[in-house]
């Protein structure tokens, strides 16, 4: 007041300003405030003049008038605080602090002013403290209106930028922590969209912002963890976790015993998996925090005492004969051990001897398995830390004991114990320099045995294969000496055996051996031994030295495929595989395609599935080639197909020429699928020689009647190349050629179906890359929906357009696939499909519905949901369609809609109940299942809508309970169970 | 029909031994074949009841070993099911309630043609005979389900765990 009075005496008010002030204070108008602020900003008068003009209203006996006066000043300051000089700031703050003592009606305006001042750059040091002191002294912040509390927080936040919270830690803590834990449910129709989690996270950020809150916050957190409320427990544990990021030993010291006691209790008496998980996360952070704190020379290391506490409370549970609380204890210990290398050392060195002893004390397999699983958990933790010094590695001392335990486990009759044993072996092997050569020889011997286990031990065999792969990458030498010779012998033995007998045992051993060979090919040096073995095996078969059948060839291809996949990470291996395997595979295929050849194996080699398996190997061996190496390869393989140049093939003295694109030899044409696998897997920037000729040949072959396998492969190959070809004149020429070929084919009677397949693949190639012509081609396809001959095929074609291919046009084989192509296709074409449906004659309507179904089915649900309400009437109509593909797709569209849009769906409850119940006795099992899932989803609609139908539905659902298919009964059981609970107490 | 217990006091068996849950039944090619009928077998019945919640622990009957697949007898052609359950302790006052939950679950989930028998594993409960008698009595079961409070507890046991 005094300060204001001094200023008031300084000068007489300016006329215009005087009027504005009067209008605002007395006239209760709002706009003058902005005018005054604008005038101050443009320099017409200073803030000082404003204060002078306000003079009498600031001293008015009526608190409302004083409040109005201060409000004007505060609003001006909010807009002009940057113009204030340091001296003015000092005076204004003095004035405002004084006003905090005023009537409560005035306080909101005073706080606004202080907020404006807290934004000043020219804030002299010490004033922030003074302002906060005054606020906390004069005002009871907790009982202010929400908007005014917000102002106080803004002032604090602004001051926090200058880090002067020092003297107010407790006050600041009090005014913020009173909101903890957040209990907030957004009101219905909340315009702000603030969720509970937003508040929780914001408050947590404040509470965990400074170590200075620790002494107040930690007792509060302990209290809330100990409460009965689940959300409070979770929030407290998560906040503790966040605090550990900024706390050190000093802050935690006094609270460690209580914190540990609370966390231990939550994990031991776990009532909720989430609380357990958060408890463990908090323990992890606590331990990590203690581990990284820098200590003074004379300080006690709290980590040791904390860990000793944990060990003391947990270790005896590991030894109780009934093994209750074994897992919670192990989880606590492993969590602490996972926080730092020191913690890991401390705990492991205490716990491992104990567990090793326990393993021998218990004799039952399932108890031993539990103990070994715990040991495995501790061993895995070792991998997190690297030890430079070999002697420091904590496992070295236990190595022999661990190995003998593992070998006991993998020779135990219990499959479960064997499995844990195999996993433990893998983890031990991953420790650098731990296992000796003798250990490895023994281990590999066991793995070899396990790799040939019978049918009923599938899981062990698979685990052993996986372990072999993992260990071979660390110890290729040992595997090369101890395992590969045995496998090679086994493969040869198989070759000899085949000529004598064809027993089921032999066959399966042969397959198992192939799988073992591919599983172990995880190191380049091993691939150099296994790949020749596999190819040699195939070659022997081809020469007739070995009789092998369809399944064997497929198995060899699968093994080759797996080896190729394992070569991906190493460019040299990749090229080695490509250069070694491809000539061999092409040679075998070319020889089999010779018209003179008639042996059994050669027929097998040209079967659809075998060619597809070979194609898959070729594609996998090409995808990861570098562009330079791929360019080398393409100059050999394309001429092989276009010119019959067989010079790079081994043993290439074939009886006839290889001319797959010439008329007449249908066997040779089939090999185009191998060409497709190769050229469509090349990196995009590899130039393909004789491209124009290749494209023309492919187009011609694609419309060649008589062999759908070859013509489809040619169409796919053409589409794959088209998709990757850069935009430009050449692409346009290829497209024109394709369109002409399609139109000519569709016009002619004999090759309409081939032309349609070509259209489909070309459309797909263009849809994927957003090519402008794709809409034209899609329209052409849509037109075919009402074609009497091709209509159903066109409807199914939409499935192909929307789905992911496995061989060509995939991202893996470098195709141009835009992420949103499905959404785009949906937006561009669904309106036309819907319109087409309404306009179509009755007999072709199902084609439209089916096409639409395929599109909707493949669309990601989150994208589909907002669009579905507009399609709802169509979907309801589609429920009456007799085509089971349409029914299935419609049901799968409606099911999420029932969950996400229950209000809209409630309007159609009568139709939905009737149709779903009808479809629950469809002849198609998949439709019955989907219909029952929809019956289940119906229970998410508002209960009052459903209750009238409850008796009828429960009666009707009794029938599918006796369905002949178990999978249908399962859905009926859960749907009926949910309907029983509707409107019933306890649900 | 159910006497005392469960009124929010101390748990009778606060720290039970917990058993591993069996995974989902793997789907066989036969089950996916439209033509092949799958008969109702012991595993299917066990799958119906194993996920029933215990009235006083946040655990399932399977995790507490109260129900086991070996204690389920079923004959699809003869339309009979017999389930024996084992209370965690011999004086468990929840035994009748657990039996009732199993019975209700089977009533809601099995075709009407089935005759079902739910009883306590012989020799595992102090009032085995009395409990079995109550569970076998159709009228008593029906009357129990008229009781809103009981129905509420049973429904909670049968609700899917969140």
From TrEMBL, chain A:
Give a yes or no for keyword Nucleus in this entry. yes
Superkingdom classification of source? Eukaryota
Q: Domain MMS19 C-terminal, which positions?
A: 513-939
Keyword Repeat recorded: yes
Keywords for the protein's UniProt record, in alphabetical order: Cytoplasm, Cytoskeleton, DNA damage, DNA repair, Nucleus, Repeat
Per the record, the GO terms for biological process are:
DNA repair; iron-sulfur cluster assembly; protein maturation
Q: Name one GO cellular component term.
A: nucleus
Subcellular location(s) of the protein: Cytoplasm, Cytoskeleton, Spindle; Nucleus
Main subcellular localization, coarse class?
A: cytoplasm
- The residues covered by the MMS19 N-terminal domain are 152-269
* Coiled-coil parts of chain: none
Record text on subunit structure and interactions: Component of the CIA complex. In the CIA complex, interacts directly with CIAO2B and CIAO3. Component of the MMXD complex, composed of CIAO1, ERCC2, CIAO2B, MMS19 and SLC25A5. Interacts with CIAO2B; the interaction is direct. Interacts with ERCC2/XPD; the interaction is direct. Interacts with ERCC3/XPB and NCOA3/RAC3. Interacts with RTEL1; the interaction mediates the association of RTEL1 with the CIA complex. Interacts with BRIP1.
**Similarity annotation:** Belongs to the MET18/MMS19 family.
The protein's job, in short, is:
Key component of the cytosolic iron-sulfur protein assembly (CIA) complex, a multiprotein complex that mediates the incorporation of iron-sulfur cluster into apoproteins specifically involved in DNA metabolism and genomic integrity. In the CIA complex, MMS19 acts as an adapter between early-acting CIA components and a subset of cellular target iron-sulfur proteins.
**Know the name of this protein?**
MMS19 nucleotide excision repair protein
UniProtKB/TrEMBL annotation, chain B:
Any GO CC annotation of this UniProt entry: cytosol
Which residue ranges are recorded for the region named Disordered? Answer: 1-38
**Entry keyword Phosphoprotein:** no
UniProt superkingdom: Eukaryota
| Membrane-spanning intervals of the chain | none
Q: Which residues form the MIP18 family-like domain?
A: 44-117
Keyword Lyase belongs to the record: no
Tell me one GO biological process term. protein maturation
Q: Which family does it belong to?
A: Belongs to the MIP18 family.
Q: Describe the function of this protein.
A: Component of the cytosolic iron-sulfur protein assembly (CIA) complex, a multiprotein complex that mediates the incorporation of iron-sulfur cluster into extramitochondrial Fe/S proteins. As a CIA complex component and in collaboration with CIAO1 and MMS19, binds to and facilitates the assembly of most cytosolic-nuclear Fe/S proteins. As part of the mitotic spindle-associated MMXD complex it plays a role in chromosome segregation, probably by facilitating iron-sulfur cluster assembly into ERCC2/XPD.
Which PANTHER family has this protein been placed in? CYTOSOLIC IRON-SULFUR ASSEMBLY COMPONENT 2B, CYTOSOLIC IRON-SULFUR ASSEMBLY COMPONENT 2B-RELATED
Q: Subunit structure, briefly?
A: Component of the CIA complex. Component of the MMXD complex, which includes CIAO1, ERCC2, CIAO2B, MMS19 and SLC25A5. Interacts with CIAO1, ERCC2 and MMS19; the interactions are direct. Interacts with KIF4A; the interaction facilitates the transfer of Fe-S clusters to KIF4A to ensure proper localization of KIF4A to the mitotic machinery. Interacts with CCDC117; the interaction is direct.
- Name assigned to this protein: Cytosolic iron-sulfur assembly component 2B
Q: What is the lineage of its organism?
A: Eukaryota, Metazoa, Chordata, Craniata, Vertebrata
